Amino acid sequence: MPSRRTRENLLTYMVVGPFAIVLAFPFYWMLWTALKTEGDLYNTKNNPFGFTQGSPTLANVRFLFEQTDYLRWLGNTALVGATVVIFTLLVSLPAGYALARLSGRWGQSLGVGIFLVYLVPPTLLFLPLSRLIAELGLQDSLWSLILVYPSFTIPFATWLLMGFFKSIPRELEDAALVDGASRVRSLLHVVFPISLPGILTVVIFSFSLCANEFVYALAFITNSSSKTISTGIYTELIRGDVFFWGALMAATLIPSIPLALLYNTFLDRFIAGFTGGAFR
Fold this sequence. Notes:
Blueprint: H1 4-34, H2 38-42, H3 59-67, H4 70-102, H5 106-118, H6 122-136, H7 142-148, H8 150-166, H9 170-178, H10 183-194, H11 196-212, H12 215-220, H13 229-236, E1 238-239, E2 242-243, H14 245-265, H15 267-278
Antiparallel strand pairs: 1-2
Helix pairs in contact: 1-14, 3-14, 4-5, 4-7, 4-8, 4-11, 4-13, 5-8, 8-11, 8-15, 9-10, 11-15
């Protein structure tokens, strides 16, 4: 008769297994479609889970890298995401700490107010922001996205970090201040190292928001070489009623792999960041 531990593990796998299969299936389908030839893909008599008529092939990947600006879109996405993350941390770290420590009971109300800004739909902000971008002459420039994206990353990051800073005991800072450290030094050497899960959550979440954002990227950037990956794939690989399915799946799969690995590597800290900041 199996032991209690074995039964618990079996029950866990029975619950988690179906979810894992459902979540992994899109990656499997993207990979299989990316490796198929057009003849194999569009022939309804072929087995969709097998390869025939010249498949598997890397022709779709070669098309993506040789006949489109895909590498440029990846570079633009990384540049915009990294710059926005830096701006977001520079603003949200001191703002979150100030709301958690220095504003007393008003901090919670201000934090909720800032978070409500994050909930404003982009479609409502689109018209005033498009006017601002036009006045500044930033059309077809990545600076238009770098200027706009912090409008939704900073409110969320400030709210999240505010809750995380509240979870850190004040006694730790008081001990550092008693030992002669300044408040800035206590922040750098005591508070921020403890807050690493929250900071890491902000970095990953802000970068993901920038990589997935579509409305502003589609409206402000029309030049192919300046597009990010979210709009470059949609506008360059769907031409009228022609869908380059193989290239579409390859273009979607390539950036999703490092993001999935990143989430998996820092999963524990990511969960700790959300649970530490969201419910306080």
